Amino acid sequence: MSDAISALDTPAALVDARRMRDNIERMQARMDALGVKFRPHVKTSKCLPVVQAQIAAGAQGITVSTLKEAEQFFAAGITDILYAVGIVPSKLAQVLALRRRGCELKVITDSVAGAQAIAQFGREHGEAFEAWIEIDVDGHRSGIPPEGEALLAVGRALHEGGMRLGGVMAHAGSSYDCDEPPALRRVAEQERSGTVRAAERLRQAGLPCPVVSVGSTPTALSAQHLEGVTEVRAGVYVFFDLVMHNVGVCGLEDIALSVLTTVIGHQEEKGWAIVDAGWMAMSRDRGTGSQKRDFGYGQACTQDGEPIAGYVLASANQEHGILCRAEGVDREIAARFPVGTRLRILPNHACATAAQFPEYHAMVPGGEVETWPRFYGW
């Protein structure tokens, strides 16, 4: 494997295929045990071989964050797709085109205005769009609170407007702020109960609500039961990252994505090794900076993927990264990491780091390295 990696130009995005498949199997086994359908969020990888591995493991349908993703995965033969970003009227023509080609594309909304726009466009074009209502279970970002007055109004605007009210969905983004199992379990239950409550209110009002969809990687791996839920969505679990490590749902040994980089120089008096992976390779995401353990721009590993205790990518410019001890100054850093040394950096946020690269170099069993393209665009 080292020989194959040594032949790559740096910086490069590496995927450990064995770790990735272990992560996929772990999540799918948990969803199967909890008795729910699993609809992975593919925005993390945006990569067909990865998504094919998720479907082969038992996933049913996918979640996307852009309509470009929906188009590309539909072209690859995947039809059951949820576009999990609030739809705006200007994008309904793209949705219509996909649905008319046979894509079972669902959209979401969290406002009466949004629901009315969907219904009006649908009636004008003879299309009964399937729309889900986004529920706010934790004040993290968007959605309607489970007891919110707007919930029934949105449901009626869709249903009475001739659209298909497919269900409700929520994302407990606040779970990323946790780092203890009891707190994660509380957020998971808050997500479950709030979304189920929203579904109950719709049904009590005589409105259909067949799907109850929840999901984040931390809550999916922490929920004790999912009574009333029909499906779960999660994305970053496929690669994991340092934020998820700090949250407490994976070990460093589970992180399947890394950036291969080369030492290009030193500032010995400062204890720095300069590498060719800056924020253009790692992304500017500094998610661990607000957590109990700060990994800078990433955890340093050997070329073979073994973490090097105490060494992080402490700062970054566009094409330069500064590797050093997290604490103290290593005056022998030039001897420790000579020019030309190959290292791997584990990312803070796998989704953001992956987005910096047009392709992955996947390390597969047998010592080979395969090239897996990524999808781009909106």
Summarize the SSE layout with pairings.
Blueprint: H1 2-6, E1 12-16, H2 17-34, E2 37-38, H3 48-57, E3 62-64, H4 67-75, E4 80-86, H5 92-100, E5 104-109, H6 112-124, E6 130-135, H7 150-159, E7 164-170, H8 181-204, E8 211-214, H9 217-220, E9 231-232, H10 242-247, E10 257-267, E11 272-275, H11 279-282, E12 299-302, E13 307-316, E14 321-325, H12 333-336, E15 342-346, H13 350-354, E16 359-363, E17 369-373
Parallel strand pairs: 1-16, 2-9, 3-4, 4-5, 5-6, 6-7, 7-8, 8-9
Antiparallel strand pairs: 1-10, 10-11, 10-15, 11-14, 12-13, 12-15, 13-14, 16-17
Helix pairs in contact: 2-3, 6-7
Q: Main attributes?
A:
six-stranded antiparallel β-barrel; alpha/beta; TIM Barrel; 2 domains; 378 residues; Lyase, Ornithine Decarboxylase, Chain A, domain 1
How is the largest sheet built, in terms of strand order?
2-9-8-7-6-5-4-3
Largest sheet: 8 strands, parallel
User: What gross morphology would you assign?
Assistant: elongated
Question: What separation lies between the terminal Cα atoms?
Answer: 35 Å
Overall average residue pLDDT: 97
Structural class: alpha/beta
Task: Tell me the β content.
Answer: 15-25%
Our count of domains comes out at 2
CATH topology of the largest domain: TIM Barrel
The count of helical stretches stands at 13
Computed over alpha carbons, the radius of gyration is 22 Å
Order of helices and strands: HEHEHEHEHEHEHEHEHEHEEHEEEHEHEE
Number of strands: 17
Give the full name of the CATH homologous superfamily of the largest domain: Alanine racemase
For the record, the CATH architecture of the largest domain stands as Alpha-Beta Barrel
Instruction: List low-pLDDT spans.
Output: none
Kindly provide the name of the CATH class of the largest domain: Alpha Beta
Helix content: 25-40%
